[in-house]
């Protein structure tokens, strides 16, 4: 999968790491309300790490979420994710 591919409508792509507590929390929340997501570990995918850095002023901040419209958010709340998907 290309890290540049936009997610399907109604889903998100979440760039994360295995050790990120905020990432784990958001995944749990997404699972609880049935929002689909594709997770990309930036430590396993250097191109994804570069994309995240480009979206965050040079910082590899996670979770970074990409929406179907191509917009992105850093460490969004579940409320924000739901609002941006509707």
UniProtKB/TrEMBL annotation:
It comes from the Bacteria. One of its GO terms (molecular function) is electron transfer activity. It holds the Pfam family Glutaredoxin. GO terms for biological process: cell redox homeostasis. InterPro entries: GlrX_actino (IPR011915), Glutaredoxin (IPR002109), Grx-like_ET (IPR051548), Thioredoxin-like_sf (IPR036249), Thioredoxin_CS (IPR017937). Residues 12-67 form the Glutaredoxin domain. This is NrdH-redoxin. It comes from Cellulomonas uda.
């Amino acid at each position: 999968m290309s890290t540049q591919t936009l997610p399907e409508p109604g889903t998100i792509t979440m760039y994360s790491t295995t050790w990120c507590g905020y990432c784990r929390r958001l995944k749990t929340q997404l699972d609880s309300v049935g929002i689909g997501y594709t997770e990309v570990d930036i430590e396993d995918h250097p191109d994804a790490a570069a994309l995240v850095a480009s979206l965050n002023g040079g910082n590899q901040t996670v979770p970074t979420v990409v929406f179907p419209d191509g917009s992105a958010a850093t460490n969004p709340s579940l409320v924000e994710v739901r609002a941006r998907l509707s």
